[in-house]
Amino acid sequence: MNDDVRNIVLGVVAAGISAALGWLARTYLWKRRLRRKQAFFGLPDNAESLLVVNRGAGGPELTVMRYDVFALLELAALIKDCNAHAQIIAHDAARQGFGERTEFCVGGPASNRRMTAHLASLLPGVRVNVDAEPGPDRGAFQIGSERYRVEVGREEYALLARLTVGDSQSTRPVFLFCGQTAITNQAATRYLARHHERLSRKHGNSTFALLLKVVNSQAYGPDVVELVADVTRAAQAPAPTPAAPRNSHRAS
Q1: How far apart are CA 113 and CA 108, in angstroms?
Q2: What is the dihedral of CA 195, 199, 205, 207, to 10 degrees?
């Protein structure tokens, strides 16, 4: 074998080794990223999860509003990426406790009985005005001493929470997407889909509750979302006595 042939063979071997090492490194990084994502969502391979949604008022059949369907699609993609499975169930048919399966609960307490129970049990510092009569506080959030009113289509809020009970390493989390309007439910799920890696790095697999503001949904839909505050501590504390409305100059 002359020098030219030997150099070609050595080059091919080196290229093959480099390609194999690169593939192994990419595979390792991909698997590590997947495991972190699965741990954050509580969804190991082939795990089962629940998507809890509102039941339409028109009858016994399960019907879901358009924006809530979009929210479910956002969540279904996340679940599939974790190599897990989802079951859609109406809010008044969910009968499981905490930690059995990861749960994604979509919709405000005015139309989602399961959300009402979760807020009362796990986030007692959150109050949502569910009055049917029109008024400046209809749909408003009160978290701790702060009140956040809704201006439909202009300034709306949503609560995004990851909640666990007991040992967070041994239970499946409950994710809440509690919006003041249907489009804010979708905005909260989209925010989670886009930022779950950053949230995982910041919060790990622990409980958190974030208040989001959806800006000008009439023009931008669910895409323009601002993080207002991490309200975990205030949301978990017992509810205070009623306070004066935030931005009370809008009450007229």
Answers
A1: 9
A2: -110
Give CA–CA dist 229/171, Å, rounded: 26
Query: Which amino acid, one-letter code, is at 149?
Result: R
Nearest-angstrom CA–CA distance, 41 and 123: 19
Give the span between the Cα atoms of 158 and 227, in whole angstroms: 10
Q: Residue 172 corresponds to which tokens in the numbers above?
A: 């499946």
DSSP code per residue over 226-240: EEEEE-HHHHHSPP-
Give per-residue pLDDT as tens, 35-50: 899 999 999 999 999 9
With beta carbons less than 8 A apart as the criterion, state whether 161 and 208 touch. Answer: yes
pLDDT digits (tens, 9 = 90+) for 173-207: 999 999 998 899 999 999 999 999 999 999 988 89
β-sheet with 141-143: strand ranges across:
126-128, 141-143, 146-148
Query: Residues in the chain with pLDDT < 50?
Result: 57-59, 168-169, 248-252
3-class secondary-structure state, position 50: strand
SS3 letters for 119-188?
Answer: HHHHCCCEEECCCCCCCCCCCCEEECCEEECCECCCEEEEEEEEECCCCCCCCCCEEEEEECCHHHHHHH
Residue 215 · residue 226 · CB < 8 Å = yes
Q: Which amino acid is at 6?
A: R
User: What does residue 85 show for φ and ψ, rounded to 5 degrees?
Assistant: -125, 155
Q: Which 3 state secondary structure label does DSSP give 211? A: strand
